[in-house]
Structures are given as C-alpha cells and as structure tokens.
Amino acid sequence: MREVMPGMSDDGEEFGIRLRACRRSTGLSQQELARKSGLSIRTISDLERGRTRWPYRDSLYRLADALELAGQERAEFVGSAGRRVAPAAADLDPSDAQSRDAGPGPGPSRPRGRVVPRQLPMLVPGFTGRRDQLAVLSELLEDPGGTAVITAIGGTAGVGKTALAVQWAHQVAVLFPDGQLYVNLRGFDQSGAPVTTAEAVRVFLDGLGVAAAELPATQEGQLGLYRSLMAGKRMLVVLDNARDAAQVRPLLPGSVTSRVVVTSRNQLTGLAVREAARLMMLDVLSGAEALQLLRNRIGAQRLAAEPDSVARLIESCARLPLALCVIAARASMTPDLPLARIASDVAGKNRLDAFADEGDLASDVRAALSWSYVRLEPAAALAFRLAGLHPTPRLDRFSVAALTGTAADQAGHQLDALASAFLMQRVGEDRYEMHDLLRSYAAELAADLETPQARQAALTRLLDFYLQASALAMDLAYPAERHRRPKLAPSASELPALAGEADALAWLDAERASLVAIAVYAAEQSWPSHAIRFSAMLHRYLDTAAQFADGIAVYDGALRAARACGDAAGEAMALVNLGGVELRQGRYQSGTSYYSQALPLLRQEGNQPGEARVLANLGLARLLHGSPEQAVEVLNRSLALYSTLGDRVGEARALGNLGFAALRQGRYSQASDYLRRSLDLSRQTGDKGGEVRALANLGEIELNRGNYRQAAGNFGEVLILSRLLGDRISEADTLASLGLAELRQERYIEAADYLQQALVLCRKTGDIARQALAHNGLGEVHLAAGRLTDARGQHAVALSLANRAEEKYEQARAHDGLASVYAASGAEAQARRHWQEALTRYSELGAPQAEQVRERLEAVRGNKVRAQLTTGNLIGRPR
Hints:
Layout: E1 2-3, H1 13-25, H2 30-37, H3 41-48, H4 57-66, H5 71-79, E2 84-85, H6 89-92, H7 131-138, E3 149-154, H8 161-172, E4 180-184, H9 197-207, H10 219-230, E5 236-242, H11 245-248, E6 259-264, H12 269-275, E7 278-281, H13 287-298, H14 300-305, H15 307-316, H16 321-333, H17 339-347, H18 360-374, H19 378-387, E8 394-396, H20 397-404, H21 408-420, E9 425-428, E10 431-433, H22 436-449, H23 452-477, H24 501-524, H25 528-544, H26 548-565, H27 568-584, H28 588-605, H29 608-624, H30 628-645, H31 648-664, H32 668-685, H33 688-705, H34 708-725, H35 728-744, H36 748-765, H37 768-784, H38 788-804, H39 808-825, H40 828-845, H41 849-861, H42 865-868
Parallel strand pairs: 3-6, 3-7, 4-5, 5-6
Antiparallel strand pairs: 1-2, 8-10, 9-10
Helix pairs in contact: 7-8, 9-10, 13-16, 15-17, 16-18, 19-20, 19-21, 19-22, 20-21, 20-23, 23-24, 23-25, 24-25, 24-26, 25-26, 25-27, 26-27, 27-28, 27-29, 28-29, 29-30, 29-31, 30-31, 31-32, 31-33, 32-33, 33-34, 33-35, 34-35, 35-36, 35-37, 36-37, 37-38, 37-39, 38-39, 39-40, 40-41
C-alpha cells in the first residue's frame, strides 16, 4: 500500500528536475548512475522525465547513495520525490523480496537489499580491432548450456587477453542486470603466489554484499553461499589471469543464466573436457589492427611519412598490443625522433629471459620494454625499478619517494614520466598502478641492478613511511588515544600534508587496502616489529570503521609475527585486538577466549593499561552473554585500574561501560550518573568516540523514560558526531534508536525509514548482531501498524541473525515480538512458547523486560493479552 506524505508534490516532475541536476553536478551520465545505483538506465530516464510519479523508497536511497548525498541535501532529495511508499515486507526483508527496479532483459530480478556488483575494471583506452573475437564471445549469449557457459581466452603475456575480456564485458553488461563480477587471479604474478580460492570467493561475496560476519566459517561453505546467491541470476563473471583449470573450477557458479569468461596464458584444456568450455587462443594483432593501434596513438600523418619503418616496428614488437602501446607512448613523447631510429633500437635489444620458453614473441616484448626503460632519465629508471618491489600494484608519490629516498615532488615527476612512457597507469588523482608484466620486469631489473642491501633499505623506508603516515593520520583522527599507540622516531620520509581530522580520515579510507596489504607483507617477509606496530597503530580506525575482515588480517599477521620473534607484549595486544573484532560481531565466547589468552601475557609484561582494557571488554562480554553480576564486578576492576593509572580516557570509557550495564538492567538513575561522568571526562580529554557513546546511551535512558523529544535531540547530536568520526557502528545504532523514538510517537513511516537506513549500514559493516536489532525494530513497526505477517517475517529474520551472533538480548526481543504477533493472531500456544523463551533469556541478562514478559504469559492464559501488548522493547546497545 502506498501512503501519501503531506506537503509533497503528487507528480514526478519536481523530483525529475532535482535528480537530473544532482546527476549533472557530479558529472555522471545516466549509464554511470545506473551502474553505481544498481538501477536500470530505463528507470533513471523515466524518473528524470517525470514518468515515474511514485518512485520506490529503496530506489531513492540507492540514488542518494550513488550521488553521495548526505545530511540536509539527502533529506531534501528524498523529500522531493513526492508520494512515497510505505514499507512493505519486500522493502524490509532482503531474504525473499524481489526488486521492482531491475533492468530490462529476461531472467529473474535481483533481491532487494542485496548489492548489485559492478566489478569490471575500466575500459582500455583506444581498444583496437578484435571484431571476430568479440563476435565469438557474443555467441555465449545464445547458448543455453547446462551449466554456466564458459569461454577461456588464452595467449601469451601482453597479447591483450584482459583488454578483450573487459571490452566485451562492458559491451554486454546491460544484458546482465544482476551484476558483473571480476577478479584478477594473478596466476602468473611475480610473487609466485596466485590468488587462492578462498581469497577469490571473498572478492565475489564482498561484491554481492555479503558482509564479513555473514561468511560461513569454511571455504566450502563460502563457495556454497556464492553459488546459492548466483542461482537463477543473470550475471557475468570474469576470471582474469588464471594459472590453470584447478584455480578456475571452484569459482564457476553453475547457473544456466550466468556466463563466465576466463583469461590465461595457458590453454586450460581441462575446462573444455569437464566443463564444456569454448577455448579461444588469442593471437597477436593482425597487421592492419597493429597499424590502426599505432595510428590511434601516434597519428596517421607521422606513420604515412615512414611506411617501411612502421612495418619494421610492428614486426619487431611481434604485433603484441602491450609492446606496441609502450613504443607508441615513447614515440609520442619524442615527436622529432624518426620512426626508423625507434625501430632500429627496438630490434637490437636482448631477449626477455622471464619468457624465454614462450618463443620469439616474448623476446620482442623484452625489446620493447627494455628500449622504453633505457630511454628514461636515471631518476625515473630508479623509480621504475624500485616500484617493482612495492607489495601492491598501486602507488603514489609519497610511497615512491620513500622507496627512492627522494622528495615527494620529485617522485611525482618520475611517476608522470613513467605514465607518459606507458610503464605505469594513472588511476586517480596522485595514484598510479603497474601492469603485472611491468611489475615483473621492474622487479627483475631491481634484482639485477640493485644490491640486496639497497632493496632491503628501500623496502624498510617504505614500511617506515606507511607506519609514520598512519601515526600522523591516527593522531589527527583520534587524538585522545595518542598515548596508547606505539612511539615512533621522527619520519625520514616526507609525509602527506593532512590538515585535520577530516583529511586524516579521508587518507585512511583511501589507503586502507594498501595499509592492510603492507601490514600483512611485513608479517610475512620478516619485518615483525613493523607488523606488530601496524596492528597497534591501526586498531582504533579499523574498529571504528567496522572493517572487521581487514582487522583480522592485520591482527592475525601481527600475532604470527610476535610469536615468531618471541614478543610477548606484541602477542598480547594482537590477541586483544582479535578479541575486540569477535566482540564487535557478537561472538562473545570466541572473544572471551582471546582475552583469556592475552590476560596472563599482559600481567607477565606488567602492562596494566592493557590489562584494564581486557577487563573492560571481558566485562562487556559477560554482560551481553548473560552474567550481569560478574560483568559489573569485572567492569569495576577495570575502572579502578584505569583510575590508579591516571588514564582519564580509559576511566571515561570504563564509566560508560558501567552506565551501559546499569541501563541494561533498568537502573536508570545509576546509569545516568555513570554516563554523565563519562561524558564530562570524554569532553575534557577530547575523546569524541567516548562522547558519542555516552551521549547515545543517555538518549536511550530518555527513550526508556518516555522523553522522546529529549532522546531524539541526543540522537541527532550523536548522528552528526558519529558521521564526522566515520563511526559506522554508532551511526547504525543511532539510526535504529531514532526509529524507535518515531515508533513510540506512532510515526510509522519515519520509524521504518530510520530502521531501514540502519539495516543497510549494518549489512555494509557485516554487523549481524545489529542487523538483528534493526529487523526486530522493523517487526515492531509492522506490528504497531497491524501488518502481522510482515512483523512475523522481520522477527523471524532477527531471531536467526541473533542466534548466529550469540546475541541473547536480540534473541529475547525476537521471541517477544513473535509471541506478540502470535497472540494478536489468536495463536496462544505459539505465543506462550515464544514468551517462555523470551523470559528465559531476559532473566539470564537481568533485564527489566523479564517482568513484562512474565505478565504477558499470565495474561495470555486469561485471554487478556491483546490489550496489554506494547509496541516492542526499549533497549540500549554496547556502544
């Protein structure tokens, strides 16, 4: 049922004008906006032209996200849509709802709430030829197949396999409305370590919107989930740079509606035998195609002046696209140099030893790369060699400056020179990437021309740079906890100019993937002290941003490094950080296990601040798992230890934890006292994270007392602060709390809006405990509005998630909600069963809701329960 909101236009013209203006202001085409939002181009066109008078609410939020709208601008954008949709089961439960905005074409529509992946890399500029191969690939679309229809593209390095696969994938992407998945399997990477099945399926599940906390524990379970999510979908899968069929086979979806394209330097005949793959061996360009590539890049007039030299150049490059692009780039940079000279230089170079067993084609690749390399200025040549040592293919001027021991401006000039020579690709402002073949060549040059000591020194400078830059960003973003992070010597490398908190968080977000990769590399390549310090340095950022998978990778690497070098202090803190990740995701027993391992090590090292932190977390774990008396005793020990140490930040957070414990047990006056003391201390120490948590739980107290306006005021302030801090967990909590405040005032549409936003955010962070919280809230909204079937569905989903997360409070709340639904439906037996389950869990937690549920159990026997039902439970969360 659609509900009209007062004061809004009842046609789509106003919204269409606003949407078009927002899209143009961001520089997006309709096609680009469609890709970012997951909507079809037709849907966006209809919206902009005012043809769709009543856009679906989910579509509005997808568009707002794609346009990166926030705050008042986001509210005005959504509000300008005129009539809006009241939340229905399909809007609120992603497990079985189908999208009504799916793109054109046959096949099932995508599930609502699940991300539509658009993982394809960007198109290769100036793609030339390959018409016959593109036509063969398009035949995939006509073959119904019995499994996923596969074409495997094989060919030598640099022949353009990836360019062809990506070009075709972009051309046919519109025919795959459920999304496109891409992974570079790095089968021939210089490190000798191809992407594992577990790593690849994680890339796909991330693209499909599966959060870390929702991942099955085993690889087989993850593969099964991947295939289940692909079943019946029209999706395109590109498996790039595979080593062999064994690497590819587990990643095949097996759905007749999907298509798979694989590229490899090997023939992959095993796929043809077992999976009926069509094999396509990609040859070098034809003479005409090679000529067209050079014409596009150098210019027809220059080529026409030296036709013989052009022919020699094409043959010297073996008509390999990569080699031709490198030569074309060099020729474009030296417009006065005769092409005859270039052709002569290329023909005179040595073979590329790394590809000697692949025939003369590879020797000409070496000639092209070598010729381009030797034309570099010495500083650019050094930057190219050392860039091959970087653990990731992505670099910027600061990281290259650290590798080379130069200033950032100088490194920037060298990167520009390398990009101009086609030895590096610019992928964004001040960021560059290297093709795998070029990385291999650069690393080979570094091994040949740099001493082991020089390579070790370059990598040490690189690791030092990332550690120092992380320290700078963390001190700006989280200044109150500076004393808890490792002390570093002054940086020998130039650091990025970060002006304040916003700059620091933006830098951390942009560099997160590189920081995690660098930390893991340090752990694996005998830089244990760096790995341990990265773990301690990045903890607060990874925790606040809810980057759980990245946190596990960093902390686990630090744990292994610390144990290998006998660093008990480092081992203890890595265990503490791993325990924190488990606690955040509701796995309280697992988190307690990590803390129990860490505590004796901390006491052995005399690390009292670490001990206080562990006690605080153990107290929370015990509270949330049903031992409130033990929890309060442990939390008081944590407070006493922080007070003895004079750690006012820790003291403030310990007070906040005690306030939360009192809130959970319904002792609101005591909770308010603890939380106000925590708030004052947090503000005095500049700990904005502590301030957010104290304010939020004070708002929960007002919500429980029925002071809805005062509660909403608190939550509004918390929402602003949490977004400024990038604190996604507090943001999700606060959105859910605002939803409950609206529900108490019988504003059901607004309540569902807030809860739906919380749910979307929780899915992004992988926080299944808070997903349960949001689903329970949505169930209460539906129950209050009289939609019993929808309410039962929401509480059932909440119960399943809460069971997985070991979250007893949300389990109790889900049982209470289901009982209320059954009681309202007249199903008294089911109502009694669920209320008994709720009573057991609330009683274990020492929660005041236990008495309410006990009264309902009594009332149901007298058939009086319908009059006594309330619209859900008021709760607090472990902020």
